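Researcher: Can you fold this with zinc ion in place?
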Amino acid sequence: MNIVEPTYNWNGPLTDRAETLYVVWHHTACEDQMQTPAAINAEHKAIGDIGIAYNRGIMQNGETFQGRPDAAISAAAHGVNQTSIDIVVEGNFMVQYLTAAAEEAIKANYANLTEKYPGAKHISHGYVHIVSGNPGDATACCGTNLMAFLKELIPGFEA
Ligand SMILES: [Zn+2]
C-alpha cells in the first residue's frame, strides 16, 4: 500500500517497541478537516511530545501518511504506548461519517497491519482504560461512527 512519508523534525530520540500487542485506532476529533500531518506534529510538539504522537494517519481523501515510524513507541494512547501501534483517522466521528475514500484506506491499512502484526489486537482508544485498568485513560476516541465501522470490519475489535 502507498504511505506518504512527510519529513518531521523530532524533538528528541524515538525508541522502538519491544512488542506489538495492540493496534489502537483514533480520530483527530476535529471537524475542520485541517489536520495535516504538519499541523498534528506542531500540536503535539506544543504539548511537549517528541513530535506527532501517532504512527500512521488516514485522511478523508483516502491518503495514508506516516507519523512516527511503525516500529516506534507512540505517545497517543496513555496506558499502552509501549506495546501499541497507533492509527488516527481525520475527522470527528462522534458527529461525522467516514468518506468512501477513508473507508477504503482503513481497509487497506487493516490488511497491511494484520500482515505486519498478525497477533496484535485491534482496539479503539476508548478501550485502552480496560486494558490498563486506569479509569483516567478513558476517552470517547475514536468516535462512535468510526467504532461502528471498525466493529463491522475487524473480527474481535474492542470499542
Ligand atoms: Zn485517541
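Model: Folded with zinc ion in place. The chain has a mean pLDDT of 96.
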